[in-house]
Amino acid sequence: MEQIVVLILPNIAWSKKNKSVDWTIWPISLCTFAAVLEPEYNVKIIDANIDNLSEEALTQRIQTLQPLAVGISVFCDDYADGGHTAARIVKSINTEVPVVMGGSYVTLNPDVATKDDNIDYFVVGEGEFVFKAILDYLSGSTETLPDCGVIYRTADGLLVDCSNRHAIECLDQLPFPEYGKIDFFKYATKEERNSAFKPPILPYGRITTSRGCPFSCCFCQVEAINGAGIRYRSVANVLNEVEMLIKRYQIKSLLVDDANFTANQKRAKAIIRGFIERQFTLQWRIQSLAAYTLDTELLELMLASGCNHVDLAIESGSQRVLSEIIRKPLNLNRVVSLLDTAKALGFMISANFIIGLPGETWEEIRQTIRFAEAIDVDYVKIMVAMPLRHTKLYEIAHDGGYLRKDFDFFNMRWGVGEISTEEFTNLDTTILRTYEWDRINFSSAEKILRVARVMGVDEETIVKMRVSTRKSLEQLLSAGNVLRR
C-alpha cells in the first residue's frame, strides 16, 4: 500500500500577527525532506502560504490524501499560530494521523510548542534524517524511535524528551531539494517585497551552502538554531546544485542565504571561481556579508562572476560597541578602506546597522548614525536591537531589567524598540530609527535614485515605502504601542 506523507507550510495569514501573504517562504527544507524520504514514501507538499489557502481548503486536501503522517514546518515565532492551526486541522479530520512539527520555532521554543496536544512528535534541530527515522517507526520499518533530535508524546500523553541534538557533520550527505514536488516557477517568478536582498532578475533560485557561523554576535540566533561553529558543503556539491538550477529551471539570478558565506575565504573564492569556470551567467547576491572576511581579490571575483551588490553587516559606528558589546571582529578603519575598494570597482553597496543595545550610550548611537551617513553607500538599513530568544542580548536585557514590562517574544515587532536603559528609551530608538533611516537614504534626488537601483524599483515605489514607514510609526504611537519601560 502506498504510504503518503504530507508536508505542510502553513499560511502566515493564519497567525494573529500576519494578515497578509506578501512574504514568500521558499519550502526548500520541505523539498529536501522529500528528497530524503522518496521513493520509500510518497511525499506531497502543501504550501498553504503561497497558495493563500483557507483552513477549509487545507482540510479538504488532507481528507483527500489520507496520509500516513503529516509534517508541519514553522519558520519562526511569528508564524507559530499558523503551525498550530494546521495541527488542529489534521487532528480534526483523523485523531489517529500522527502529526510532526519542526523548524526553528520548535528548536527555539520546545517548551511552548509541546503544550499543543494536537502534535505527537517535535523535531528539534536538523530534522532531515530524524524525520525519516520517525516515519520508519510509524510505518513499522523499525521498532524504535530516534534517540536524539525528537520530543514525543506517549499513548498516555506523557512527553519523552530526546531533544539532545546531533548535527549533520557532512552536509554533502543531504540530497538536493526535490523541486518536482512544488511548482518551482510560482516562487522563482514572484516579485518579492521591496528589499536590498531581492532577486535582481527573474526567474531566480536560492541556495544555502553552509550551516552556522564561527562567531557569536550578541544579537544572533544562528548558534541556537545550528549549534556552535560552522559546517560547510563541499565546493563541488554547491556548484553542482547551482548547475542543476540553471539547467533544469533556467534561473537567471541566485540568492545565497548563508549566515556567513565568506567565513572561510579560501572556500568562498573557490566557489566563485567555479561560477566563472563553469560559465554561470547569473546575477547573484549574498545577504549580510561579514565585512571582516572580505578583501580586494574576493570583491574582484564576486564582480567578475555576476555579483554587483554587496550587503555589509557593519552593525555599529562605534569600535567599542563592536568589540565589547556585539563582539564582532570588525575594525571600522578597515571597513572604510573596504568600502573605498568596493566603490572603485563599481559595486552597489548597502550596509546594516543596529542601535539600542544595552551598554551602548546615546552618544554611541548618534556616532553610528553619523558613521552610516558618512560612508555614503547606496542604501543604509537601521534596525532597533531585538532581544531574541537564546541570545546574549536577551540575557543582558532581561537580567538588567531593560525590557518593556509587557515584553513577549511572540509580540516583538521589527523596527520597534523593546529595550530601555539609563541612556535611552525604546521610544527614543523607535523614532530615531524611523526618521534617520529616511533622512540618510532619501536626502536628495540622487540618493533616491541610488536606493531605487539597489532595490530594483521605481521612484514612485520609494515614495510609497517612505510614507508607509512613517504611517506605521504614527499608528504605533497613536495606539500607545510603543511604551516606555
Explain what the structure shows.
This protein has 485 residues and is an alpha/beta fold. The chain has two domains: 4-162, 3-Layer(aba) Sandwich (Rossmann fold); 171-478, pyruvate-formate lyase- activating enzyme (Alpha-Beta Horseshoe), CATH 3.80.30. It is 40% helix and 15% strand. The protein contains 18 helices and 16 strands. The protein has helices at 28-37, 55-65, 80-93, 104-108, 110-113, 128-139, 184-188, 222-226, 235-249, 265-277, 296-304, 319-326, 332-345, 362-374, 392-399, 426-441, 445-455, 459-478, and strands at 4-9, 42-47, 69-73, 99-102, 121-123, 150-153, 159-162, 204-207, 210-213, 229-232, 253-256, 283-286, 289-290, 309-315, 348-355, 379-384. A seven-stranded mixed sheet has the order 2-1-3-4-5-6-7, with helices on both faces. The protein has a four-stranded parallel sheet with strand order 13-14-15-16. α1 (28-37) crosses α6, α2 (55-65) crosses α3 (80-93) and α11 runs parallel beside α13. The longest helix has 20 residues, at 459-478. It starts with a strand and ends in a 7-residue tail after the last helix. The mean pLDDT is 93.
